[in-house]
Design a protein that fits this description.
Elements lengths: L10 H14 L8 E2 L2 H7 L4 H13 L3 E4 L3 E4 L2 H55 L5 E4 L9 E2 L5 H5 L2 E7 L2 E4 L6 E2 L4 E5 L4 H9 L4
Antiparallel strand pairs: 1-3, 2-3, 4-9, 5-8, 6-7, 6-9
Helix pairs in contact: 1-3, 1-4, 2-3
Length: 210
C-alpha cells in the first residue's frame, strides 16, 4: 500500500519511500523483481519520468537494481532500512525547524500584544490623570518654615504655588477645606492638589526659611 503523502516531499521521493517501506516490512524480498518503470508510473499515477527518478534514487542507495527489460530487482533490506532511517532524521530536523520557527513567531506575537497592552495602559493612565487631577499631594511643615505659625492668607499659599490646599492634619485631627485664616504649625501635614509640577513648587515654597 502506498505510504501517505508527506507534505513538502517530492513525488518521486514519496514513491521511493513507499517502496523502501514495503521492502523493510518484507512485503518484497531480496531477489524479487517488482514493477518495471512503466508499471510504477501507472500504479502511482505519475509520469514515466517521475517513476524513473524514484527507481534511480533507490538504485543510488543500493536498494534495488534496474535492468532494462528485466524490471527492478530488490538488492538489500538493510539498505532500505538505512534509507528510511536517514529520511526519518531529515523529516525530524525539518519538523524541528518548523516547530522552532512557529515558537519564535508566537513569541513575537506575544511580545507585540504585550507592547500594545502596555501602550494602552499608559494611555489610560495619562487620560485618567487628566480626568482626575484631584489626587492629593502632601507636605509636612517644618519648624522655621515660612508657613510655621502663619495662615494660608498670610503666606499667599495659592498665589505662590498655584496649589489648592484641601486639608490640613493637625494634632491628630484633619481639617477639611481649611479657610484662608487657617494657621499652619510645624508638624502639620498639608494636603493639596494641583498640576504635575505643583509638588515641586510647594516643596520649594514651604521650605523657605526652614
Amino acid at each position: 500500500m502506498e505510504r501517505k503523502k508527506n507534505d513538502g516531499m517530492p513525488r518521486y521521493q514519496q514513491i521511493a519511500l513507499d517502496i523502501a517501506t514495503q521492502i523493510v516490512k518484507r512485503q518484497y524480498r531480496v531477489g524479487d523483481r517488482i514493477y518495471a518503470r512503466s508499471s510504477l508510473a501507472s500504479r502511482y499515477h505519475v509520469s514515466p519520468e517521475t517513476a524513473r527518478r524514484a527507481v534511480c534514487l533507490l538504485a543510488d542507495m543500493g536498494i534495488v537494481e534496474a535492468e532494462k527489460g528485466s524490471g527492478v530487482e530488490i538488492l538489500s533490506v538493510e539498505a532500505a532500512a538505512r534509507y528510511l532511517q536517514e529520511l526519518t532524521g531529515v523529516e525530524t530536523m525539518t519538523q524541528l525547524r518548523a516547530s522552532i520557527r512557529a515558537d519564535l513567531e508566537e513569541q513575537v506575537r506575544i511580545a507585540a500584544e504585550i507592547k500594545d497592552k502596555v501602550s494602552e495602559l499608559m494611555d489610560r493612565a495619562e487620560r485618567f490623570q487628566h480626568l482626575n487631577p484631584f489626587n492629593p499631594f502632601e507636605i509636612t511643615v517644618e519648624a522655621g518654615s515660612i508657613c510655621d505659625g502663619r495662615t494660608l492668607a498670610q503666606v499667599n499659599f495659592w498665589q505662590n504655588t498655584t496649589a489648592t490646599v484641601i486639608a490640613i492634619a493637625h494634632g491628630g485631627e484633619l481639617m477639611i477645606s481649611p479657610g484662608a485664616s487657617t494657621q499652619m504649625q510645624a508638624g502639620d501635614v498639608v494636603y493639596f492638589v494641583g498640576d504635575e509640577n505643583a509638588p515641586a513648587r510647594v516643596d520649594r515654597f514651604v521650605k523657605v526659611g526652614a
